[in-house]
Amino acid sequence: MPFFICPNCKERSIDHDRREELDNVPVACHHCGFGFLFELMDDYYPAPNAGLVVCDQAGRVLACGRGVFELTGYSEGVLLGRDLVEGLGLSGFTPERNPAQLALEWGVRRLGEQLELRTRAGVTKPVKGDFFPAYDSDGGLLVALAPR
């Protein structure tokens, strides 16, 4: 059974056919109205103060959920289209161990990554990152960032 999570409100759901209706319409969030849900291999419970970021298959930000602004100070409009690692100033790893790139390249989850991000105010903040590759034909990445 496919598990889904809303990148905006973090509401979790299941859907047996991955479609909203009889047409070829992807599932959307019935809780907040967000336009698409992210499919996960296993059910996932993000931290209450986590912010979710959705990226395309090149690691560029497509959408930011609630909690990202509170954690980083960046609004969604500032981050859209930017590389996730550069846009949020993520650090705490060597270039060959970039968790976003590893998740995208190998199609594996990266849970509990100990990272640091640079807030909009320029403050370095320790965070925990969970990285989930997309399992649909579009590819992409879901990232959950929470303070540690």
Structure notes:
This protein is α+β, with helices and mostly antiparallel strands. The protein has a single domain, classed as Beta-Lactamase (2-Layer Sandwich), CATH 3.30.450. The chain is built from 4 helices and 8 strands; from the N terminus they run βββββααααβββ. The strands form 2 sheets. Strands 5-4-8-7-6 form a 5-stranded antiparallel sheet. Strands 2-1-3 form a 3-stranded antiparallel sheet, with no helix packed on it. Strand 1 and strand 2 (12-14) form a beta hairpin. It is globular and about 50 Å long. 32% of the residues are buried.
What order do the strands of the largest sheet run in, or round the barrel if closed?
A: 5-4-8-7-6
Low-confidence stretches: none
Rounded radius of gyration (Å) = 15 Å
Please report which band the strand proportion falls in: under 5%, 5-15%, 15-25%, 25-35%, 35-45% or over 45%.
25-35%
Number of helices: 4
- Per the CATH scheme, the topology name is Beta-Lactamase
Helix percent reads 10-25%
Q: Element order, helices and strands?
A: EEEEEHHHHEEE
Mean model confidence by pLDDT: 90
CATH class: Alpha Beta
Number of domains: 1
**Biggest sheet record:** 5 strands, antiparallel
> Which structural class best describes the helix and strand composition?
alpha+beta
Give the beta-strand count: 8
Q: Superfamily at the CATH H level?
A: PAS domain
- End-to-end separation in angstroms reads 32 Å
| CATH architecture assignment name | 2-Layer Sandwich
Q: Quick one: overall form? A: globular
